[in-house]
Every structure is written in C-alpha cells, then in structure tokens.
Amino acid sequence: MCNSQINAAGRRYLDLVKNQWSTKVNVSLSGSHDNIDIRGFYGDYDVIVHYMGKPIRIEHFSVYKGEDNQVVMIQINGTGG
Q1: Could you tell me if residue 43 is inside a domain?
Q2: CB 64 within 8 A of CB 48
Q3: Which pLDDT does position 23 carry in this prediction?
Q4: pLDDT value, residue 31
Q5: Does any domain span residue 17?
Q6: Is the pTM of this model over 0.70?
Q7: Which residues span the domain enclosing 62?
Q8: Is 12 part of any domain?
Q9: 8 A C-beta contact, residue 57 and residue 76
C-alpha cells in the first residue's frame, strides 16, 4: 500500500486544471431563456443537458485560437430529449 500525499506543486497543478483553467457553468432554463452567453478558454468542451437530474443530451465542441465567438446549437425535442 502506497502512503503518498500530493505536495504543494501537485496541489497547485490540480487547482489550475480543475478550477482556474476549467469553465463550469450551471444554468436552469425556462421557456423564456433560450440563449446562454459564457466566456471560456481555448480547448475542448462538453455541454451536458440534464432533465429531472438525468443527462439527456451531450454536445461536444472545441474553441480554437482566433475564434471570437462559438455558437453551439442544442435541440431538445419534448421533455425527454
């Protein structure tokens, strides 16, 4: 059994990757909301749409250097995806 611990550099790296360099947005939508504007970093993203606590749709997209805006269209038919 290995009894190792993460040192200060490891904790800093994890904080950067999991928190500071990550874009996490949670938005509850109603009939009046159909657009969400967020700022993010360059890289790959997953948009996960949940309905009643369960994921019903996943969209993958990437943001590349030089792109000013990224539009992601997600179509959900009915309430079940």
Answers
A1: yes
A2: no
A3: 77
A4: 64
A5: no
A6: no
A7: 38-81
A8: no
A9: yes
Residue 72: both structure tokens together? 């992601």
- State the residue for tokens 């009894």: 3
Residue 1 binned pLDDT confidence (cut-offs 50, 70, 90): low
User: Which stretches of 1-81 are assigned E, i.e. beta strand?
Assistant: 43-51, 54-63
Q: Residue 9 is inside which H or E element, if any? A: helix 8-15
Residues 31-78 have pLDDT tens digits of 665 677 887 778 888 888 888 889 988 889 888 888 877 777 777 765
One-letter amino acid of 48: I
d(CA 49, CA 32) in angstroms, rounded, equals 17
Please state, as a whole number, how many other Cβ atoms lie within 10 Å of the Cβ of residue 56.
Answer: 13
Asked if the structure places residue 22 within a domain, the reply is: no
Which amino acid is it at 59?
Answer: E
Number of domains in the chain: 1
